[in-house]
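Researcher: Re-running this chain for the archive, since the previous output was lost when a drive failed. Same request as before.
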Amino acid sequence: MVFILVDDMGYGDIGPFRVTDIKTPHLDRLACEGVKLTDSYAAGSVCSPTRVALPTGRYQHRVGIEHADIQIGSDKALSTSEISIAKMLKNNGCATGINGKWHVAGTVEFGPNAHGFDQFFGFLGPNVDFYTHQQHFPMKGVPDLWENTQPVKTQGYLPDLITEHSVTFIKNQASKPFFLFISYNAPHWPFQPPDQSGAAEPEHRHLATRQDYNPMVERVDDGIGEILQILDENKLAENTLVIFTSDNGGERLSRNAPFFHYKTTLWEGGIRVPSLIRWPKQIPAGITSQQANITMDMTATILAVTGTEPPDGRLLDGINILPIIKGEKPIQERTFFWRQPILEFENCTPTYRTGKFREVRIEPLCFFS
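Model: Regenerated structure tokens:
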């Protein structure tokens, strides 16, 4: 199975969700051959919380990672004592790999390999320059590109490299069950379009425009096209579950329509995300589901379809949504919870105000076509 997570993409930034100024033919294909989920939510309004909720299948508050404040060298990390989806699938005979952004630890000691992934290519921190592969902010210039536990240097636009390593992983694992987590760093800032000699706006993020942003989304779509093609070539497409979603709502250059506000907020624009699921052998093509779902549901669904049982006493916060999507069960009413730290900004660095949190309970809204 293939799980594709993009970074800071707006709800309305792809063809299936009515974008008009970006071309996403491969995501259009994924929607046509699968399911469009109109009521999907990220576990957090910023990167790290969602990236904790996905591998654990549980609310990020359980492990104390509630904001995107993990930097390179930080001692804050998802503990290796946590039972990750990679560990569970690996114990059930799956090869496991991740390519792209990690951002739940600042050192390789707590990197993907320590959490059950057989193979890792990507970066640990919050963001990197798309061309130099060095940290962009706040630890500008620190190298952050890894292959398993070793630092590496290579040339290329990072989303393309993530795609390249993902295609290789699928080729190498085509004869056996596998779980591949493709974690694109686009279209997160720095807003650096592909096919340029270097950075577009590394020092002046506020000057970037939608003309910088759109090609980044389109390059991700190109990469997804290559992933779908390699599945076709290896005759894997029919029985491979492919999931696409975003880690949170989009930022200022994103199109979050028809919802209000952006990433870092608990308005719908900050937590409502585009989601697509394809599994030709099991799910009818071209359907739309209004079942409210959240990041942890994807974990529970993957474990269910692979027949992987969590260890005794390990309770998941998500549900298997496939029977609902397939019409075998009725749509369920859900209540989701978010807890957003109140942050103060000193010299552009977020700091916690101890003990003060905003707790939010949101009943998912209906999507109107």
